[in-house]
Amino acid sequence: MTDSYPFTVFGDEFKGKRVLVTGGTKGIGEAIARRFALSGASVATTARSEAGNGQDSALFIKTDIGTARGVQNVVDCIQREWGGLDILVNSVGGTETKAGGFEVLSDEDRQRISEIARKITGTRWSGPAFFGLKAPK
């Protein structure tokens, strides 16, 4: 896995750390999760869809953190599996695009995009919910 990684990685930089990367199965979130894993962390990822083949996280939680119930699902799972969390990276996102850009979007398209943006801001529930998952002293 480190052969194809373009940057220097210290395998024990995050050894023993429990990391949650929301939206960690695609794009920037996937890269962040990969970097933590390469550096020795136990990494949990979340997404609304299934994790892709070859994705290497210690724990995957399929859920929609755009809802309070989805966030609580993640909190409960992390607490049950790991007993807490050391690092939280909120990287959840989403988009839908059409050829032609914004000008070709219908009212329905704009509404759907607005709904995605609203759900992404739903991560406001995750901050307070995850405060209870602090690492033990």
Molecular structure report:
With 137 residues, this protein is α/β, with parallel strands linked by helices. It has one domain (2-94, 123-133): NAD(P)-binding Rossmann-like Domain (Rossmann fold, 3-Layer(aba) Sandwich), CATH 3.40.50.720. The chain has helices at residues 27-38, 68-82, 107-120, 126-130, and strands at residues 18-22, 42-47, 59-62, 87-90. Strands 3-2-1-4 form a 4-stranded parallel beta sheet, with helices on both faces.
Describe the secondary structure blueprint for this structure.
Blueprint: E1 18-22, H1 27-38, E2 42-47, E3 59-62, H2 68-82, E4 87-90, H3 107-120, H4 126-130
Parallel strand pairs: 1-2, 1-4, 2-3
Shape: globular
| Helix/strand structural class | alpha/beta
Unreliable residue stretches: none
- The overall number of domains is 1
- Percent helix, as a range, is 25-40%
**Architecture per CATH nomenclature, i.e. the level-2 architecture:** 3-Layer(aba) Sandwich
Number of helices: 4
**Radius of gyration, rounded?**
16 Å
Largest sheet: 4 strands, parallel
Q: How many angstroms does the end-to-end distance come to?
A: 33 Å
Order of strands, main sheet, comes to 3-2-1-4
Average of per-residue pLDDT values: 77
How many extended strands?
Answer: 4
The CATH class assignment is Alpha Beta
Assigned CATH superfamily: NAD(P)-binding Rossmann-like Domain
Element order: H for helix, E for strand = EHEEHEHH
Fraction of residues in β-strands = 5-15%
- The CATH topology assignment is Rossmann fold
